[in-house]
Structure formats: structure tokens, C-alpha cells
Specification:
Helix content is 31%, strand content 23%. It contains 9 helices and 21 strands. The strands form 6 sheets. A 7-stranded mixed sheet has the order 8-7-6-1-19-20-21, with helices on one face. A 5-stranded mixed sheet has the order 9-10-14-16-15, covered by helices on one side. The two termini are 37 Å apart.
Length: 378
């Protein structure tokens, strides 16, 4: 007899080094829901999700990218862009130490029969490309501290999980030129005898602009849509917004023009390259719905696509019965879109119920005492 199985999909928690780091209040920590996440993990490993009359209930926690935010952890006080394995291990230890309650809750979840964790990276946790970083995280989350473990998987060689029941899970960053990871070439030339991460331009943007300006406006990375933030800022906070735009343009051209020596010479080639780059990068922070719909149209066997990355929770069911879910974020966001104007508390996740070869997919929101979770209402 086939039994119900469950997938709990979360993304974009953006855990940095904790509220306090190196003796100071940490403005780069955006995750403040340690207790709520621990409660969610307890809920989905006990009670009706624990053991029933037929034995342990199978529940897989799918961490769909940007769970650890390595870009938000400084190294020796600096946000450097040449990231080696040793530097990534330093950041890993800082994040683990900064969120002990979440780490304990993940270990406890994995300790129950039938419970597993799969971590697929996004563009803020590409440090998972390093072997020792994956090993450290697996040992931290495995109930027995084993590596390799039977309970914990960390995916670093692909950007999707495809379920036979017609569900495809991706972080979503690969549809955004600024955040695209190179799985074919994850490392660049050796740095002091060690390989360094081949990070996309969007990561430079975070390291060199966002992290620098968060000291002045700690909400800078929490406002969507970006276009409205800039337009409002130019009117209401002109000096800061001008600085933001200047730095963004500077680092964009600095990183992009570094590629020009590899191209054919001539003004027309330079113009074509820059225009194409601007067109591609302009898609940053889009809601990815068109990309999800393209997958649903191209793959007849896929009925539901689940993304993260955009920080905008969505649940679209189309006339043909196909579905797009975006799991949003666990970071408090500020929405300047008229459809959802105001502050959003997040804590959204996808709950996938698998039964008899069929999948039922829902976007849910953790409510704690009131539910403890309910259908996301937008």
C-alpha cells in the first residue's frame, strides 16, 4: 500500500553570522526567525508527521537555496570577492555559531525516522561548491555527525530537483544573468595556490555595494521592486540614492568591461556588448513567472514548478491546471508594489503531498500558535 509522503520546501532564509558578530551588532544579519523555523521543523517531524499506524511518516525538508548567506559574512572585517575554501570555511563556522537554535532543530528533525534534508544551493551560498564546506555542513546537521550521512544531502552539481510526480524545484537564479552560477566552471584561476569561487556579477553587487551601504540604510536589500525603490529614493532620499546608483553603475561596468579584451576590437563590438549586458542584467529581482510558465509549456510531464530567489511569494494556478509556486523568503521585506504595499513578514514555504503518483502542492505560511500554518493569502 502506498502512503502519503511529504516535501517541505523553504528558501531564502539568508542566515548570516547572527545578531551579534565579532562583538558588535551585525547589520548584515537579515534572518530573525530562528524560533519560528525551529517550531516548523518540530511540527513536521512529530504528531501527524511523526509516526502513524503504519510506521514513520516520510518527510523531506528541501532547502531550495540561499539558506546560508555567505555573502553577508565579512572576513577579517572585509567583504572580499576572492573567496577560497579556507575563507568559506571561516564563514561557515560563523553562520553555524550565529544560529545555534536552527542548527539544533535541523539535527533533531533529521534524527527522526523517515526524515531527511536536501540542501540545493542558490546564488548566495555558492560556497557549497567547496568539498570541505559541504562536509562541514553535513557533519553539523547529521544526527550522528557522520560524513557522508544517510540523512543529509547537499547538491552542488545541478540546479534542479525533478520529482516523478510532475514537480520541478529550482532556486531560480539561473534565469537571471546577474546571478547565474557556472556549474561547468565553478572556480577561477588559482589564488595563492588555491582555487577561488567563480562568482556572478550579482554577488559582486552584494559584496561591494549592498553590504557597504547597509551600514547607512539596513533595509536596502529588503525593498522590492527595485525600480520603485530607486524612483522613490531619488525623490525622498536623493543623496543616498544617487550614491547607490553611481556605485551600481561603476561596479557593473568595471566587472563587465573586464571581459572586453576577450572580444573583437572596435567601437561597434563594445557598444553591442554593453547594450546586451544591460538588457540581460535588467531582469534582476523579477518574479520569474514567465520563466516558470516556459518550463510548464516545454515539459508536458511537469505540472508544478517551485522557485525561490525573487523573495516574492506567489501561487499561480493557470487555466490548464498547471501551477507556479514561489516560496518567497523568511526575511522581513518592504513591498512598494501597490498590490501588496507595506511590510511582509514572510515565513512562507511549499508543502507538497505525494500520494499514488500524484502531487498536491500548496503555498503555506507559518503562523505558530494560529494554525500552526495556513494557506498563504498574499
Amino acid at each position: 500500500m502506498q502512503r502519503e509522503r511529504f516535501k517541505v520546501i523553504i528558501s531564502d532564509c539568508h542566515m548570516s553570522a547572527g545578531r551579534f558578530f565579532e562583538g558588535h551588532l551585525n547589520p548584515h544579519e537579515d534572518f530573525h526567525a530562528d524560533g519560528e523555523l525551529a517550531d516548523l521543523l518540530e511540527h513536521f517531524s512529530t504528531g501527524q508527521y511523526g509516526i502513524d499506524a503504519h510506521g514513520p511518516v516520510e518527510v523531506e525538508l528541501v532547502i531550495n537555496g540561499d539558506f546560508f548567506d555567505f555573502l553577508g559574512v565579512p572576513y577579517q572585517g572585509e567583504f572580499i570577492d576572492v573567496i577560497t575554501e579556507d575563507i568559506s570555511l571561516y564563514k561557515t563556522e560563523a553562520i553555524i555559531a550565529g544560529h545555534p537554535r536552527v542548527m539544533a532543530a535541523l539535527r533533531r528533525f533529521a534524527s527522526f525516522s523517515g526524515k531527511t534534508i536536501t540542501y540545493m544551493m542558490g546564488n548566495h551560498d555558492t560556497d557549497l561548491m567547496f568539498d570541505k564546506v559541504r562536509e562541514r555542513i553535513i557533519r553539523e546537521l547529521d544526527p550522528e555527525g557522520e560524513f557522508p550521512g544517510q540523512k543529509i544531502s547537499v547538491l552542488h552539481d545541478r540546479d534542479r530537483i525533478e520529482l516523478p510526480e510532475g514537480v520541478e524545484i529550482r532556486h531560480g537564479n539561473q534565469f537571471e544573468q546577474a546571478s547565474m552560477i557556472s556549474y561547468e566552471k565553478p572556480f577561477i584561476d588559482m589564488y595563492e595556490g588555491k582555487p577561488a569561487l567563480n562568482i556572478p556579477w550579482g554577488s559582486f553587487f552584494v559584496l561591494k555595494i549592498v553590504n557597504r551601504l547597509k551600514w547607512e540604510r539596513d533595509y536596502i536589500n529588503k525593498v522590492r521592486p527595485l525600480k520603485a525603490f530607486i524612483l522613490f529614493g531619488l525623490v525622498m532620499d536623493t543623496r543616498f540614492s544617487m550614491k547607490y546608483c553611481f556605485l551600481a553603475a561603476y561596479y557593473f561596468f568595471k566587472t563587465r568591461l573586464a571581459m572586453l579584451p576577450r572580444l573583437r576590437s572596435g567601437f561597434s563590438a563594445v557598444k553591442e556588448f554593453v547594450v546586451d549586458a544591460i538588457r540581460n542584467e535588467a531582469r534582476i529581482f523579477m518574479d520569474l513567472e514567465k520563466d516558470a510558465r516556459a518550463i510548464l509549456d516545454a515539459k508536458k510531464s511537469v505540472n508544478t514548478v517551485v522557485f525561490g530567489h525573487s523573495h516574492r511569494p506567489m501561487n499561480r494556478v493557470y487555466p490548464d491546471g498547471k501551477q507556479y509556486i514561489n516560496t518567497g523568503t523568511w526575511v522581513n521585506m518592504i513591498n512598494l508594489d501597490w498590490q501588496g504595499l507595506g511590510q511582509q513578514s514572510g515565513r512562507t514555504f511549499a508543502l507538497v503531498t505525494l500520494d499514488g503518483g500524484q502531487a498536491k502542492c500548496e503555498l503555506r505560511q507559518w503562523s505558530g500558535e494560529r494554525g500552526p500554518h495556513q494557506v498563504f493569502q498574499g
